[in-house]
Amino acid sequence: MPDKALVLLSGGLDSATCLYWAKKRFSEVTAITYNYFGRIESEKRAAAKLADSAGVSKIIEIDLPFVKEASDFFEGKRKQGGNGLWSSYIPARNMMFYSIAAYHAEFLGVNSIVGGHNLHDVEFFRDASKGYMDRMNALFKEGCLLCNGSMYKIALPLSRMKRRGIVQLAIRLNVPIEITWSCHKDGKVHCGNCYACRQRMEAFSSLGIPDPAFPQ
Fold this sequence. Notes:
By secondary structure, the protein is α/β, with parallel strands linked by helices. The chain has one domain (4-207): Rossmann fold, CATH 3.40.50.620. It is built from eight helices and five strands, in the order βαβαβααβααβαα. It has helices at 13-25, 41-53, 70-73, 93-108, 119-122, 130-143, 163-172, 195-207; strands at 4-8, 28-36, 59-64, 112-114, 153-155. β1, α1 and β2 (28-36) form a beta-alpha-beta unit. α1 crosses α7 (163-172) and α7 packs across α8. It is globular and about 50 Å long.
């Protein structure tokens, strides 16, 4: 059985599913989360709650105040496209996030860096594809000096799934879906209007079950 995993944990449904997936497969799991500019408090709280519920004693918080989503960088002046996805776009996001994760993975002796990218992501975000991650893995292999033949790699357990399949997997893994936060607005409840909320609503509706994170 592989020993250690480092999970990129945002607090959303995808990363929560990855966290519980990793708990089933690795004897030691650490979470890493990124506090970029304007990250909403509801998402931060969800990440902390998920780590606690999964019994993950260590969560690495990385402050990146200079990293802004497009909507913050352009102060909302750019025309929205891609069903609103542009607003959450960060140039080189995954190159930055996974490189920072690789730094910690090498010192921690981690086998897998686990990310929650899925088929919905790659429709818009070019740096979320398996091919992109495979190229990053190749670069990590070239640069790692402490791996001693046991190289860490990025693992994408959701890469062939859409939201409906992710919900089904989350249920099978007993993920506490009610404490996840996917909404792009802060508040006590999900807004139900942003693209992330709409994707969740459509997935749960297609399965004929309520989303525990949404008010009924």
